[in-house]
Amino acid sequence: DPDKITAKFSPVNTIGIIGGATPDGWNGSTAMTPSADCLTWTIDTTLGDGDFKFRANDAWVIDLGGSLTDLQQGGSNIVPPVTGDVTITLHLGSVPYSATIQSR
Fold first, then answer.
1. How many Å from the N-terminal Cα to the C-terminal Cα in the chain?
2. What is the rounded distance in angstroms from the CA atom of residue 11 to the CA atom of residue 84?
3. Taking 80 as the threshold, does the pLDDT of residue 7 lie above it?
C-alpha cells in the first residue's frame, strides 16, 4: 500500500575515513573537508597497510565501500591502490559514487 511507505532521511554533517589503513584505525573517523556544495569531500592524509571505508556522522548508518569507481552503501572494505602520503577525494555528485586516491 503506497500510503504506508515511509522514508527516513539522515542529514550528513561529516564524512570521514575509518579503517586499518587510516591514522586512527578502526577507533574513529578521520574527518574529510567538504566542498561548498558538499558533493566533493577531500583529505590529505597518510594511508598505511590495510583497508578503510567512508562513513558519515561518525556512525555506521551511512558507510560506503567496495570499488573506488562504484561505491555502495555497506560495501566491502576498500584496499587503497597506493599508500603513504595521499589525497583522497570522494565524489558524491553522481551515481555511482566514486573516489580517487592520489599520491602527494
1. 53
2. 32
3. no
Measured between alpha carbons, how far is 16 from 18 in angstroms, rounded to an integer?
7
- pLDDT at position 1 is 67
Q: What is the full DSSP assignment across 10-68?
A: -----EEEESTTSTTGGGSPEEPEE-TTSSEEEEEEEE-SS-BEEEETTSSSSEEEEET
User: Quick one: what percent of the chain has pLDDT higher than 90?
Assistant: 89
Q: Which helix (H) or strand (E) holds 55?
A: strand 53-56
Three-state DSSP at 4 gives helix
60-92: string of b/e by CB count within 10 Å (b at 16+)? eeebbbbebeebeeebeebebeeeeebebbbbb
pLDDT bracket for residue 4 (50, 70, 90) = confident
- 73, 29, 12: which is closest to 65 by C-alpha? 73
